[in-house]
Amino acid sequence: MNVLTIETTCDETAAAVVTDRLEVLSSVVASQDALHKRFGGVVPEIASRAHVERILPVIDETLRKANLSLADLDAVAIAHTPGLAGSLLVGLSTAKALCVARGLPLIAVNHLQAHIYACRLASGRNVFPCVGLVVSGGHSNLYRCETATDFTPLGGTIDDAAGEAFDKVASLLGLPYPGGPSIEKAARRGDAKKYRLPRPLLDDPSRLEFSFSGLKTAVRYLLERSHGSGVRGQGKELADDHVGDVAASFQEAVVDCLVGKADLAIARTGYLTLCVGGGVAANSRFRARLEESAAANGYELHVPPLSLCTDNAVMGAIAIERLRAGKFAELTLDVLPGPERAVANAN
Ligand code: KG4
Ligand code: ZN
């Protein structure tokens, strides 16, 4: 069976064709980074308009690359939550139209669960049960993932998401959007021990939560103390080695929090596998620290290759699990705009 998966939750227009044997026949991702760059973040109205322009060409190209036509499809899967309302609506309307036109079943995908499922795809074997950690632009959520269709929130951020903190601190440092890759690059020439920044909630073993907004503010104060203004262009230009040291110190603080709480979730659940997904999982320092921790604490770690960390439609293959379980969606399916906050104390 061939399933067309569609992803338009934020600022990537993506489609893929996957089979019920989890083979990926094709995948296309149209990034909108260039459109949002000058605003330093995703502008929802621009994102949804760009999805409207791109969605049909992206689906066409996906089918062409797979050597298939619409007649060869057996189902359509759509990421309908969480995300930007306008963006989600473009993908959902397109998916529904295809289902009505071709008489195909519709499958609902949760974008965050799909990020975790990228680990299943990349490893080529079962990864469940596991602890799932999704670290993206809008989310830093921990889940107990009993099976591929049974996720329970364990905890998440109480304010900013990790990726959001990377993006905001990059902007304070005058580094280009998206901030994560810019900070990672700048951090390579910096000293992570130069500034001791806060690790909010890290020392509290009773809380499986993150908080990154205070860390971002601490960076702002640090820059103001050293330059009179935290914003490049408004104050004195920041010296490159100073930018590197701040970027490295900030990155280390975020990574400490993420790895520390992932370890805590593993200890609490007793699970032996950690699956990490989302754009921030592309960060090489984070990946290295996760590997160290997995080795030290004796759990199995899965982090997908970079192309499956940032938004894509291949991870929508989680729809195959729903297909196998007969879990189809009605054509009345609605979007559930995000963010999806993992309820505190659900653990
Ligand atoms: O999962 P994703 O592509 O989209 C959302 O669902 O949000 O994640 C995007 C986020 C952005 O905040 C971006 O700055 C961050 O992931 N990111 C990174 C890196 N690459 C992307 N953060 C840290 N290091 C990276 N290398
Ligand atoms: Zn995402």
Q: Gist?
A:
With 347 residues, this protein is of the alpha/beta class.
Structure in words:
43% of the residues lie in helices and 18% in strands. It is α/β, with parallel strands linked by helices. The strands form two sheets. A five-stranded mixed sheet has the order 3-2-1-4-5, sandwiched between helices. The model has no long low-confidence stretch (mean pLDDT 94). The protein binds 5'-O-[(R)-(carboxyoxy)(hydroxy)phosphoryl]adenosine and zinc ion. Zinc ion binds next to helix 4.
Layout of helices and strands, plus pairs?
Layout: E1 2-7, E2 12-19, E3 24-31, H1 33-36, H2 44-66, E4 75-81, H3 85-102, E5 106-110, H4 111-123, E6 130-135, E7 140-147, E8 150-155, H5 162-172, H6 179-187, H7 213-227, H8 240-269, E9 273-277, H9 284-297, E10 300-302, H10 306-309, H11 318-324
Parallel strand pairs: 1-4, 4-5, 6-9, 9-10
Antiparallel strand pairs: 1-2, 2-3, 6-7, 7-8
The chain binds 5'-O-[(R)-(carboxyoxy)(hydroxy)phosphoryl]adenosine (KG4) and zinc ion.
